[in-house]
Amino acid sequence: QLQLVESGGDLVQPGGSLRLSCLASGFTLNYYAVGWFRQAPGKEREEVSCISSSGGSTKYADSVKGRFTISRDNAKNTVYLQMNSLKPEDTAVYYCAAEVTLLGCPNKFDYWGQGTQVTVSS
User: Fold this and answer.
1) CB 36: neighbour CB atoms within 10 A?
2) Cα separation of 70 and 21, whole Å?
3) Contact at 8 Å (CB) between 23 and 73?
4) Three-state SS across the chain?
5) pLDDT digit string (tens) for 79-98?
6) Residue 74's closest CA among 48, 56, 92?
7) pLDDT tens, residue by residue, 9-57
8) Angle, CA of 117, 16 and 113, to the nearest 5°
């Protein structure tokens, strides 16, 4: 069974840092691009970042550029999202998603995790 499991969400003060992990089970992430998305209460889901299957291509939403870094460790079947300088507006449920492709970051993702809550508050 293909499964993505996010972890690392927590309550953190503004200016703090968190690292989210997305662990794949039941399949290897080697041939999958992986995206991180978030959804805050009352807002639409937005794509935060994406990394290609090789790790050679990444993209970020303007709202997180310079603060968030996406990376992957295919040996561990895991993709990470390092989040620094967190702001209250980063509060959301964060989801990872995967799509099989060797061509950069796709427009759609077929496999989704259940999400992890990130709360930025003093």
Assistant:
1) 26
2) 10
3) no
4) CCEEEEECCCEECCCCCEEEEEEEECCCHHHEEEEEEEECCCCCCEEEEEECCCCCCEEECCCCCCCEEEEEEHHHCEEEEEECCCCHHHCEEEEEEEEECCCCCCCCCCEECCCEEEEECC
5) 999 999 999 999 999 999 99
6) 56
7) 999 999 999 999 999 999 999 999 999 999 999 999 999 999 999 999 9
8) 25
